[in-house]
């Protein structure tokens, strides 16, 4: 014997014939799969990269726990949404039969509960993530703590209503049972529409307030460019999520949560249900990208586009005639002058200069300077060892020629001195 509530629902389902309406785009199975699966896959990739980055940097926190729980909850909701396609999702409720209505309501119950939990967790994730960037005792940090309390209370209230829409819960899908239902499970269309619209509207407002918290930090001059990049990505994606919430609110108001112009939730509900699934997937992407993107660009993208950066300096060193004359006079006047020792000392100094200049290991292990090669045979070996890369110093060759000239001048001077000593009268 059907109850009064069940009889009223049957009356509402037959109050208007909407069988002539064209099938909406989001009521097709291919559209549902094409939207839900790719967005869920991308969100998983972003969350995994976020957790990997935090593990690598050894800075896991409460925000990472919230995002993992959030991703699990959203995944369960997306899976049950896809499964509901086998029970009349996208079809007219009068055509799917009573058994499919019960099965659809069971799966929709899971989707509704996971959605309300997910919207709560994403706010807790973002607010706890903000605590990392604001200094202790600052006003923004206090706002974050207040936001955590408000989001927690708000989420707990709506999640309870979604988890227990009827007493007993089975009354949500078993319309013949004498259960007491309210809010999301009410049998009164106005109450159902008001509850869904209230949750969606308050969710959009809270999302906007949460996104507004880091805006002053973005425009602060002292903010590092990496932090500004992460906040910018967060704001852009958060704006997209907020627009989806507003769009979903419009669909709920237009169809009164699937009860107007006739009670047909399987026909009018898919648009708002799919938008809810996309909203939570984009929210997980929004919460994850600012965490791993700056690290990803530093660790991988820069190495892809810039493999090695080598600076090569070519310098000619030539001795002027004046410096040569002064060097000659000072060298010959010194009783202990030895051109060969001077040349070796110059080689040691040039080697030190080489070590100071080629600090890049890429250059240091592949280039053999000319002043480290003594003769033509060694030059050939050095050229072979470094794969044909040589540094030829014109100044070094000029120095060798000048030392040889000074040595000859010293020898001629010694010979003249010896001749003068042997023949003082000459």
Explain this structure to me?
With 426 residues, the chain is an all-alpha fold. It has helices at 4-13, 29-57, 62-83, 93-96, 98-130, 139-163, 189-212, 215-219, 225-255, 265-268, 270-305, 321-333, 339-357, 361-364, 376-385, 394-422; strands at 166-167, 180-181, 368-369, 390-391. Helix 2 packs across helix 11, helix 3 (62-83) runs antiparallel to helix 5 (98-130) and helix 13 (339-357) packs antiparallel against helix 16 (394-422). The protein is elongated and about 140 Å long.
Which tags fit this structure?
426 residues; mainly alpha; Rhopdopsin 7-helix transmembrane proteins; 2 domains; two-stranded antiparallel ribbon; two-stranded parallel sheet; 16 helices
List the SSEs and their pairings:
Layout: H1 4-13, H2 29-57, H3 62-83, H4 93-96, H5 98-130, H6 139-163, E1 166-167, E2 180-181, H7 189-212, H8 215-219, H9 225-255, H10 265-268, H11 270-305, H12 321-333, H13 339-357, H14 361-364, E3 368-369, H15 376-385, E4 390-391, H16 394-422
Parallel strand pairs: 3-4
Antiparallel strand pairs: 1-2
Helical residues, percent: 55-70%
Low-confidence stretches: 303-312, 318-337, 339-344, 352-393
**Secondary-structure element series:** HHHHHHEEHHHHHHHHEHEH
**The CATH class of the largest domain:** Mainly Alpha
Q: State the major sheet.
A: 2 strands, antiparallel
Quickly count the helices: 16
How many discrete structural domains?
2
The computed structural class is mainly alpha
Percent of residues in β-strands: under 5%
Supply Rg: 40 Å
CATH topology of the largest domain: Rhopdopsin 7-helix transmembrane proteins
